[in-house]
Amino acid sequence: MLCGRCPPIEDMDTIASLCERYRVDLAHADHVARLTVELFDALQRLHRLPPRARDLAEAGAMLHNVGLTVDEPSHHLVGRDIIAAAQLTGFTHAERLMLACITAFHRKTVRPESEQLFQVLNPVQQQETLALSALVRIADGLDYSQTQSTHIDTIELDVSEPTKAIRVRVTGAHSHEDAARAEKKSDLWRALFCPVYVSGRLTSPGLALDHTLAAAGRRILRYHLDQIEPQEWLLAADNPIPPRQIDRLYTTVRYMRATVRAFGEHYRSKRVRPLAKGLSQLEAYLQRVRERDVWMAILEKYGQGLEPDSDLSAGAEALRAAWQAERESAQADLIEYTHGIDHGTWFEAIATFTQSDRDDKTAPLGKPARLRHAVDLIQAAHLARVKAFDELPARPAVEDVRRVYLAVERLRSITDGLRDVLPPAQVERIQTACTAAQETWGIIYDAYTAAHAALRFLDEHAADEATLRGVLAFGESQRRVIDARLPAWRTFLEPLLVI
Fold first, then answer.
1. What distance in Å separates the CA atoms of residue 288 and residue 326, rounded to the nearest whole number?
2. Of the candidates 101, 200, 181, 107, the residue with the CA atom closest to the CA atom of residue 143
3. 161, 37, 14: which is closest to 87 by C-alpha?
4. Strand residue runs (E) in 89-171
5. Cβ neighbours for 492, distance < 8 A, ≥ 6 positions apart
6. Can you say whether residue 197 is alpha, beta or left, with left for phi > 0 and alpha for psi between -120 and 50 degrees?
7. Do 213-497 and 9-201 have the same topology in CATH?
8. Which of 185, 212, 306, 325 has CA 20 to 30 A from 383's CA?
């Protein structure tokens, strides 16, 4: 039932007709409306608004930019007047005033005491209007990029005092800039209820061919940084860190180092050099732990077929105990490093670096400046470094296999980083070939390092005759692995040579 004098139905407006008349960007409006409703539902415990308010939240979000094509600088005020003057079907007079106020309050500083339409509402309606406006402001900020690519991943409520707060995690190619804008626009919600903390996470680098090379490098670094939860970068000291977590961190750090190598020239050297140094130091600490995880995994598989009381079993047990002790020591060193001031400063610096262009160099005219100028060159250069190993002999030294492994790893890393601007079929072809090569060559190199670690054990520890025989037998088993797989190493290089 509409309040006041009702015009004929054919003269009444709908949300759809207003959006059409004022050429509202429906992609943005729909996305903001979905986000607003999602926030409304998730935060019901705090705002306690009635079910009808959910419809008003969605309608207010759809109409928040209705005045944009009329007067962009003041579109929040123009939109207010458009809605106030419209005869919106399905809404009471008071609800239309509430929608008008939501539009007025969706941007700039909210001053309800200065808004005449707001003063007409009763206290309950005023409170509802402010709460709905706060939700629309946050949702609008989550599409600040106007790409509709940012989506809510998680919403966590902490209702305990004095730490009462909301933490929103969003994902998408532009999630960091959208998250920052949404958090800034959460000022009204903060005044009404509690602080809102919004963090972004890239699910892809989100590259475009018009990105500068400096911006592309930063986005790829941010993407890799986001693949690890923030708390995982500061490793907990309570329990043994799972091998899988170590491996993920190690791989991520190596991918980030490959990105710095590929794009480092596009930044001020005094800024990027300490970031590269921090990555190198962290990799070294992680590698010590990861190596021992690899050796113990090999040892566990080797020991499955051994007789419990045999010499071979005695040697395997001696190696396991020694490597476990080394692993514990390496983990302790890693934790001490990651909890130190240097690592904390580095992490903050690299997170800030990925979000700011202040350290970007401007390419001189005539040099590639944007991805569209250089994306093919960047990948071709990495592919060429792999192809250069076609001159290795049929049975190369294991150290040389490691070198080609690293070249393939960097090719895989850079292809992953550039995948948004490369043909999908090409990305899949390269990634498939790289994965197969790394798996086989990794087994060869891991066997090689495990055999050498076993010999080092004999140099550093006094061993009885049974243990000596068992350790030597383990080393010999790893040399057999190398002998079995090394002759076919080139089979896995061939697919990359013909790309």
1. 9
2. 181
3. 14
4. 151-158, 165-171
5. 433, 436, 437, 440, 441
6. beta
7. no
8. 212
With bands split at pLDDT 50, 70 and 90, how would you rate the model's confidence at 11? low
Tokens found for residue 303: 């020991």
Q: Is the pLDDT of residue 6 over 70?
A: no
- Are the C-beta atoms of 379 and 423 separated by less than 8 Å? no
Instruction: Give CA–CA dist 14/91, Å, rounded.
Output: 10
**pLDDT band at residue 160 using 50, 70 and 90 as cut-offs:** confident
What's the token pair of residue 58?
């969605």
| CA 366 vs CA 115, 354, 362, 369: distances in Å | 55, 26, 12, 9
Residue located via tokens 């079929």:
425
Task: Indicate the pLDDT class of residue 9, thresholds 50, 70 and 90.
Answer: very low
Element (H, E) at 387: helix 371-387
**Which token pair is 287?**
């590698």
pLDDT in tens, 424-434: 999 999 999 99
Q: Would you state the pLDDT for residue 21?
A: 95
| Residues written for the chain | 499
Strand partners, 349: none
Whole-angstrom Cα distance, residue 36 to residue 42? 10
Angle at 67 between CA 62 and CA 70, to 5 degrees: 145
CA separation for the pair 408, 386 (Å, rounded): 6
Cβ burial, residue 276 (10 Å; 0-12/13-18/19+): middle
Q: d(Cα 169, Cα 155) in Å, to the nearest integer?
A: 6
| 213-497 maps to CATH 1.10.630.10 | no
- Do the beta carbons of residue 102 and residue 132 sit within 8 Å? yes
Taking residues 328-337, report their average pLDDT: 94
In whole angstroms, what is the distance from residue 374 CA to residue 265 CA? 13
Top-tier CATH class for 9-201: mainly alpha
Write the pLDDT tens digit of every residue in 346-393: 999 999 999 888 889 988 888 999 999 999 999 999 999 999 999 999
Q: Residue 359: which residues within 8 A CB-CB, separation 6 or more? A: 267, 268, 271, 272, 353
Q: What is the pLDDT of residues 261-310, one digit of tens each?
A: 999 999 999 999 999 999 999 999 999 999 999 999 999 999 888 888 78
Tens of pLDDT, residues 105-116: 999 999 999 999
The b-or-e profile of 98-108 (16+ CB within 10 A means b, else e) is bbbbbbbbbbe
Tell me, rounded to whole angstroms, the distance of Cα 85 from its chain centroid.
Answer: 45
Residue 10 CB burial class (10 angstroms; 0-12, 13-18, ≥19): exposed
DSSP three-state, residue 22: coil
